[in-house]
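FORM 12-B: Structure-to-Sequence Request
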């Protein structure tokens, strides 16, 4: 494993410092950032991740507390999970976050696992920046640290990015392979289903991939093969971030 603390000492700007989560309190503060980031502007699909079962502040508080417990449980149960956060050294507040999942072996060697979760499968990957600290380079700082971790381990990377995040990911050597839309049409859909589909269907996302060390051409000048053309052995390890 790479020396993460050493990386952080060289991957900071004048105000923001990147660290890795060690305590639950840190991840709790990260969840506060994720909630704020996805409500400014409001992202309808956030109800899929953090269902608020009511319309009062008490219902919202209960949902926030549940999400903090759930994310901590998922994180501590998954040794491949690395939550990074950007700390504002002026205020002492956490202002951005990214979860990188680093797999040194093929996580799907035995096939795709059965998904059992109350609202969403484990091993979610996130990136979020508090609305008050956007356009300050925090997203790029978090990407820089994660990419260095992957490059030090000679891993390829993948993520699912929004239209807003796509240009930043491209700056770090990712390219879009597929645009993924969400088809919510089902036979005999109920009024309730149509309502939820209207209110919570997310915008299309981009499946993006970065080859090892961001090298899209081999030393011979030949273009690197895409994931589906490299064979099963190429998918044995990697780093993912969403």
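FORM 12-B RESPONSE
SEQUENCE OUT:
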């Amino acid at each position: 494993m790479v020396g993460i603390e050493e990386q952080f000492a060289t991957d900071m700007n004048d105000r923001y410092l990147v660290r890795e989560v060690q305590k639950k309190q840190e991840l709790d503060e990260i969840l506060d950032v994720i909630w704020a980031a996805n409500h400014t502007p409001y992202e309808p699909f956030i109800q899929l991740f953090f269902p608020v079962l009511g319309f009062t502040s008490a219902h919202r508080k209960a949902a926030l507390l549940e999400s903090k417990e759930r994310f901590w449980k998922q994180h501590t149960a998954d040794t491949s999970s690395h939550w990074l956060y950007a700390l504002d050294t002026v205020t002492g507040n956490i202002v951005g976050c990214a979860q990188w999942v680093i797999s040194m072996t093929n996580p799907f060697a035995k096939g795709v696992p059965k998904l059992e979760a109350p609202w969403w499968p484990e091993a979610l990957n996130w990136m979020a920046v508090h609305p008050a600290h956007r356009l300050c380079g925090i997203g790029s700082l978090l990407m820089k640290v994660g990419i260095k971790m992957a490059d030090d381990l000679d891993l390829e990377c993948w993520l699912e990015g929004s239209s807003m995040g796509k240009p930043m990911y491209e700056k770090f050597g990712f390219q879009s392979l597929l645009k993924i839309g969400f088809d919510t049409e089902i036979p005999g859909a109920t009024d309730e289903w149509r309502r939820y589909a209207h209110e919570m269907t997310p915008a299309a996302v981009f499946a993006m991939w970065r080859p090892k060390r961001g090298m899209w051409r081999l030393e011979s000048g030949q273009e690197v093969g895409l994931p589906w053309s490299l064979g099963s052995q190429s998918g044995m390890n990697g780093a993912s971030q969403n």
